[in-house]
Amino acid sequence: MKKKTALITGGATGLGKKTAFQLAEEGYQLAINYRSSKEEAILLSEEIKEKYGNSILVIQGDVASQSDCSHIIEQILLKYSSIDVVIHNAGPYIHERKNMTEYSIEEWNYLINGNLNAVFYLSKEIIPLMRRQHWGRIITMGFDRVETAPGWVNRSAYGAAKTALASLTKTIAMEEANNGITANMVCPGDIISHWKEKDIVESILSENVPVGRVGTGEDISRVISFLLDEKSDFITGSIIPVTGGMDVLGKAISGRKTT
């Protein structure tokens, strides 16, 4: 049986790294893309090879760049015969809170390109490959309540890009349903810092989360894994929050700066 190949953008650290371990355990061949985390990407590939013996390719590239996206795909196809799964995990983010008018043109374009256009750049080349085999899985990443097109003070560029991406994900799902390709968006809750690379068993109690514990990277990677399953083909065009019951966007908005 041909092994499936999964591309994970921004896969060297955080949720991407945890997803890489999840898919490696399930036997996927992996293509791990990184922009600047070279040491982390190499270490990850060594750990996966040692633990699971999977074939793994590490590729540098900025998904905000169309030419870099083409290069990423070229490198994958030189090593593997197909790209069966794409996890669009990479997503530029500016932590500094800014009103819309405070963004520079360069900052705005980079956030839109990295969070929205990157999915178009990669999908335009990868979806035809998936059509040929009549099978494919596409996962995008969003935020809590993204499907309602909410306003998000001081996060205008990121919010606009991800809201548009939710619509694009649904459109891809509709257009490609007859081709055996599914597209879904996973919306992680308030999973911070080192918890993105942790297992559920390592989680600790938290009064701030309705389910009573902090979220981990495994909470997200398990959902992604389920969506990739052969028998999950009836789930497509879905926006899936994984928040532990928390009003994540409400919390983010309530913490905005005042002027």
Describe the structure in brief:
The protein is an alpha/beta fold and 259 residues long. Helix content is 42%, strand content 14%. The N and C termini lie far apart (60 Å).
Would you write up a description of this structure?
This protein has helices at 14-25, 38-52, 66-79, 105-133, 156-176, 217-228, 248-254, and strands at 5-8, 29-34, 56-60, 85-88, 136-141, 181-188, 239-242. It has 259 residues and is an alpha/beta fold. It has a single domain (5-254), classed as NAD(P)-binding Rossmann-like Domain (Rossmann fold), CATH 3.40.50. It has a seven-stranded parallel sheet with strand order 3-2-1-4-5-6-7, sandwiched between helices. Helix 6 (217-228) links the parallel strand 6 and strand 7 (239-242). Helix 3 runs parallel beside helix 4 (105-133). 43% of the residues are buried.
